[in-house]
Amino acid sequence: MSMREQERFCGNCDTHVSYEYPTKIFCSTRYEKGKDPIVDTLWFCEDWNLVSQECYCVQEALRARDKVRAQR
Amino acid sequence: MGRDDCIREPVKHIRVSGTMTVDQLIQQFKNSGSFGAGRLATACDIYEKMLRDNGCTIFLALSGAVVPAGMRQLTADLIRQHLVDVIVSTGACMVHDAIEALQSHHYKANPAVDDLELYKYHLFRIYDVLVPEEGYVRLDYALSEMYGEIADEKKGAALSSREFAWEIGKRLEDRNSILRAAYEEDVPIFMPSIRDSEFGFIHWLHATKAGQKNVLNLDAFKEVPEICGICKDSERNGMIVLGGGVPRNTVQSATLASKKSLDYAVVVTMDRPETGGLSGSTLSETISWGKMKGAADNVMVIGDALMIFPIMVASVVERLGSGFRRETFMQRKKALTGEKT
After folding, report:
1. pLDDT per position as a tens digit, A31-58
2. Does this complex have an ipTM over 0.95?
3. Shortest Cα distance from A31 to chain B (angstroms)?
4. In which element (H, E) is residue B50 found?
5. A47: how many CB neighbours lie within 10 A of its CB?
6. Residue B209 annotated among the catalytic residues of the structure
């Protein structure tokens, strides 16, 4: 796991599921609280908890962000 | 029975030509009358007989993953063409339908793929079909909102799974959806194992949402008199089972409870009878329970429903011709009671 992936992101939080892979996730915790549940994979909030089994969300969202930046 | 009675009908060998239709091939299978070919030909004959019997209510029992694999359109078409009267389904089959109704898809895949890699990509596998997690998540989000709307409308009153299916079908705009077609054509869909599907698990999300005034209430027992009533009000009952499980048992038990028993039965399955499980149980076993009449036309086709059933439908639709029209159970019932359709 790279240093970037150990950072806190919605994409490595245990309540994340894919909404628009890899850039948007659906957060059930936010939904339960009546907040907008669709958030950026690379965002995070105070309820963050590390996911129990790693996925490619953060890695691919970072790659997608880098690609967008390179095109500018 | 004498020796000559055993060898009355010789096997006729199958002839194939380059221009033959589906039903012409099935007629060749009938000439053979042997093994899977003979059983498939018999299944076509029984389905045709059910459709031409004006007093027969046809139950289609759906289980397994036939919808993700490509049987969604066919099922919706059968409903719209009045070639089935009642659907009894796992919750999952209708979840798969709703996923596609919300513009998500199922994808062809190699079954030898690394499943941990799929997990990391948020892709779910059903043998050689993949569904992206987004399909379920978008459905969850939409369903949770629908549940809130339905709960507010019903003000706590409990729904049967049939009423639930129609409420969901009413809210899906996709004409190719099974749930939508059933809603528009007044064809009941029963989901006796609805809780064991995304429809059930997403109830948790809906019920725990902050500010949710009313919670959707489903009554598992409410559908029992509904489905038994359909059997009871039908002159004859027929079932076509794809797979087995809870949907097959529900149809069979409803015909028994209504003291009607099945007059026709076609079961398409890959399951074996030796384990004692219902899906592989023979239709002869069904007779022992009184769920099917001893004189019923029946056949069990051992094969993949995704191959068998479309062939059955193509053969029978060809026989019926384009001018064939049939009223569904609900249309027949409403005509009798004078209720407007």
Report:
1. 999 999 999 999 999 999 999 999 999 9
2. no
3. 6
4. helix B35-52
5. 13
6. no
Nearest Cα of chain A lies from the Cα of B211 at a distance, in angstroms, of 7
And the tokens for B200? Answer: 């059930």
Does pTM top 0.90 for this prediction? yes
In a domain, A1, yes or no: no
Q: How many CB pairs under 8 A join A and B?
A: 45
Residues B302, B36 contacting (CB under 8 angstroms): yes
Q: Which residues span the domain enclosing A40?
A: 7-71
- Rounded Cα distance between B32 and B9, Å, is 10
Q: What's the one-letter identity of residue B195?
A: R
Q: Is residue A2 part of a domain?
A: no
CA pair distance B191, B205, nearest whole angstrom: 20
Contact status of B118 with chain A (Cβ, < 8 Å): no
Cβ proximity of B211 and B110 under 8 Å: no
Tens digit of each residue's pLDDT (9 = 90 or more) over B293-309: 999 999 999 999 999 99
Instruction: Determine the straight-line distance between the first and last CA of chain B, rounded to whole angstroms.
Output: 53
Q: Which of A19, A28, A53 sits opposite B205 (nearest CB)?
A: A28
Q: Provide the number of structural domains found in chain A.
A: 1
CATH number at residue B28: 3.40.910.10
Give B122's contacts in chain A (Cβ within 8 Å).
17-18, 21, 55, 57
Range of the domain at B27: 3-337
SS3 B263: strand
- Select from A18, A28, A54 the Cβ nearest to the Cβ of B134: A18
Q: Which chain A residues touch B210 with a CB distance below 8 Å?
A: 32-34
End-to-end CA distance of chain A: 28
